[in-house]
Write a structure and sequence with these properties.
Order of helices and strands: EHHHHEHEEEEHEEHH
Distance between the termini: 30 Å
Radius of gyration: 19 Å
Shape: globular
CATH class: Alpha Beta
CATH architecture: Alpha-Beta Complex
Number of helices: 8
Structural class: alpha/beta
Helix content: 25-40%
CATH topology: Lambda Exonuclease, Chain A
Number of strands: 8
Amino acid sequence: MGEKKIQLSPNSLNLFLECPHCFWLDKNLGVKRPPAYPYALNSAVDELLKEEFDAYRAKNLMHPLLSENNIKAHLFPNQKLLNQWRNNLAGIRYFDQDIGATLFGAVDDVLQFDDNKIAPLDYKSTGSTTANVYDRFQLQLDTYAFLMEKNGYSISGKGYLAFYVVDKSRGFIDRLPFRKEIMEVETNSAGIYDIFKDAVNVLKKTAPSAHSRDCQFKKWFDGAKAFN
């Protein structure tokens, strides 16, 4: 197997933690798990929220979601840099020379506090009745905080999830009403490097590691083989 550039994202790290075997196949051979159902509505909401938050940023105004929840922070003022960090092909990046790999992420938004410390803000839209902080969301915020530190920024030790929850109690009436919530999460940027390094070491092996015991894709594959 020839040498190739290793570039990992929060989704890559999440896949590695879920199952190193699936992770190795995905990154080294391009053998991917069946994709999840594409929620185009989520992508549309994400784009609209970026436009909305950017409009407040351009006017140097605090977004109501922050003021209503007593979060004493402003939107990160550097729109040009934020656009780069948001770009899936660029993102905020860190190359580690010791392990010869890049970690990157495309953050939705960034908050800046009066002491100039910053924190990641990620938008989440859901049709569930409650807003849940899943492990993959935590990993995402931890990774963004790690990348911010590696790019020379002081971080607040917090991350934020702006949830837009479909409010089914209010009916449709040609509009899709949302209930807005924001959650503050403690971030652990210190733990990301070890996950990153372990994931890269797995990729550099000539054969994949074993499936995780709870990997649903292994269970499906084993079940399919039983009928052959």
